[in-house]
Amino acid sequence: MASTPEITPSLAELEAQERRLVFRQFTHEDAWALGSLLVELARERQAPVAIDIHRSGQQLFHAALPGSSPDNDAWIARKRRVVERYGSASYLVGMRFRAKGTSFEESSRLDPDTYAAHGGSFPVTVEGVGVVGAVTVSGLPQLEDHKLVVEALEEFLSKG
């Protein structure tokens, strides 16, 4: 995606993303539109990703682009479970553990076959309600997965 070295965002930057990227509501139509936007962005980049949007335990959107595999679906589920458990982006959760000098796998006491604090899953937060779901991408390096989701959320929410 980018030819320049990736700069890892700080915890403060990641937390600011979560405070900023909040929906007034999140409907089935919103899930379709956001998922379609992610597909469009991924196709422009020829990104071999799978995309998933869940709300309240229900899958509202899923797409698997060329080059993705069943492994991406497994990663999606593991990253989404981190968002559902912690109420924060999977990348941010992993960064919080690393900031304490440890890793999610070492210190969370959660099964790494079930949970993955790797970038790419972001909470769907509704004003006055809280986290109601997650939008997840898998197939790129974790920071790129995270950035793709954030870019789509920023574009989608700027239109609303």
Could you walk me through the main structural features you see in this protein, from its secondary elements to its overall organization?
With 160 residues, this protein is α+β, with helices and mostly antiparallel strands. Helix content is 48%, strand content 18%. The protein has one domain: Beta-Lactamase (2-Layer Sandwich). It holds the Pfam family HbpS-like. This is UPF0303 protein IAG44_25780. Belongs to the UPF0303 family.
CATH class placement: Alpha Beta
Low-pLDDT parts are: none
Given the C-alpha coordinates, what overall shape results?
globular
Count of distinct strands: 4
Radius of gyration: 15 Å
Taking the sheet with the most strands, its summary is: 4 strands, antiparallel
The CATH architecture comes to 2-Layer Sandwich
Mean pLDDT: 95
In whole angstroms, the N-to-C terminal distance is 27 Å
